Amino acid sequence: PAAPPRAEPTGAQAKALLAQGEAAFKAKNYRTAALAYEAVLEHNPRHRACLSRLAEIEAHCGRTASAAAHLEAACDAARSTALSAPTTPLLLARLAEAYVTLGRPRDAVRVAREALELCPDGDAIGGEGVQARRSRLLTLLGRALYDAGDRKAGADLFMAVLDKEPEQPEALAEYAAVALECGQLHDALKVQLRLIVKRPDDKKTRAALARVVAADDGCTHLFEQLAPSAAAASAHAFLGTVVKEASLLEQAERLYHAALMHAPAGAAASYALNLAHVLELSLKYDEALGVLLGYMRSPQARGRSVGADGPTVEQLAELLDDAARAPAAQRA
User: Fold this and answer.
1) Helix (H, G, I), strand (E, B) or coil at 128
2) Which of 51, 58, 296, 303 could form a disulfide with 74 if both were Cys (CB 3.0 to 4.6 A apart)?
3) Terminal CA-to-CA distance of the chain, rounded, Å?
C-alpha cells in the first residue's frame, strides 16, 4: 500500500522547526539547520526567512549558484507579498552580489537598481540609516556596471560615493580594485592599507591586499609607503602573515625580514619563527636554520631557556651548530 501523505505541520510546528533551524544556524550546524528550513519550505515554498537562510548556508559552502537560486525565490516571494518590507532591499542586494560573483553583471545591474528604488532618501532600513545602505547599493551597482562593460559609469559611481563618504569601505575597495586593474599600483596599495587598518580580520580585505602586493614591484611600493623601522615592525609582521595566507612566500619573506630587523625584544622570537617557517615552506632550510640561530645568539634571547629545566637558548644554538657541522665533516 502507498505510504500515507505527510501531515502538514501546524503553525506551532512550523514555528518550532524555524526555531530549531535558527538555533542550529547560530551554532554553525548548517546541515541540521538546512534540514529544518527545508521542512518548512515543503509546505510553504515562499517562506522568505527560510529561503534567505538557505542562501546564506549555500554561500558559506561556496555554492553561489545554489545561493542565487534561493535568493531568487525569496525575492519573488517578497515582490508578490511584502515589497515594502524592510528586508526586501537586503535580499535584492544579496542577489545582486551573487550575480556579480557568477559573472552575470547585467542581471546584477537590474536587481541593484530595483533595490535602490526601495531605498528612498530619508528612510531607515533595519535600524540603519538609509545613506549607508544606499552607499553600499550604489557601490554594488557601480561594480555591476563596470563588469558589464560600462566602466566609466561604474567608476563614476565609486567616486560619487567617496565624495560623500571618503571612508566608505565598499567604495574604497572597488576603487582600489579598479586602480590595480588600470596599473595604478601606488593608489591601489595606499587604499588597501587604509582598508586593512579598518578591517584587519576581513577575509576579502586581506585577499585584496595580497593581490596588490603580488603585483610586479608590489612589495617595493609597500616599503616605499611603509618604510622598515621600529615603528613599522609590527605592521610588517602582520602584512607578512596576510601575504603568507595567499601563498606569496617571496613577499612574506621580505616583510618578515623587515619586521625582524627592527623587532622589539618581546616580538623577536615570534618574527624569527614566522620567517623561518616561510623559508622552510620555500625549501630554504639552511636559511631557516640561520634565522633561528641568529635569533638565539641575539641580545633579545640572552638568558632565556627552553622549558623550566631545559637548556638555555645559547646552549640550544650550540647543539644546532654541532648538528649542522656533523654532516659537513662526514662529507669531507
Assistant:
1) strand
2) 51
3) 86
pTM, rounded to two decimals: 0.76
Cα 112 to Cα 81, 131, 147, 201, 283, distances in angstroms: 20, 15, 14, 27, 48
Distance CA 108, CA 110 (A): 5
The residues, ordered by sequence, that sit 6+ positions from 309 with a Cβ below 8 Å of its Cβ are none
What distance in Å separates the CA atoms of residue 36 and residue 20, rounded to the nearest whole number? 7
CA dihedral over 16, 18, 22, 24, signed as positive or negative: positive
- Considering only residues 209 and 120, tell me which one the structure prediction assigns the higher pLDDT: 209
* DSSP tag of 305: B
DSSP assignment of 176-187: HHHHHHTT-HHH
Residue with cell 649542522: 324
Q: How many residues does the chain have?
A: 332
DSSP letter at 300 equals G
How far is the C-alpha of 280 from the C-alpha of 288, rounded, in Å? 6
Q: Which three cell numbers stand for residue 316?
A: 640550544
Q: What is the DSSP string of 221-285?
A: HHHHHS--STTTHHHHHHHHHHHHHTT-HHHHHHHHHHHHHT--TTTHHHHHHHHHHHHHHTT-H
- Cβ-proximal residues to 295 (8 Å cutoff; 6+ apart), any chain: 260, 268, 269, 272, 301
- Cβ count within 10 A of residue 57: 20
pLDDT in tens, 35-91: 999 999 998 999 999 999 999 999 999 999 999 999 999 999 988 876 556 778 899
User: What sign does the CA torsion over 167, 169, 173, 178 have?
Assistant: negative
d(CA 29, CA 294): 47
Contact status, residue 19 vs residue 12, Cβ threshold 8 Å: no
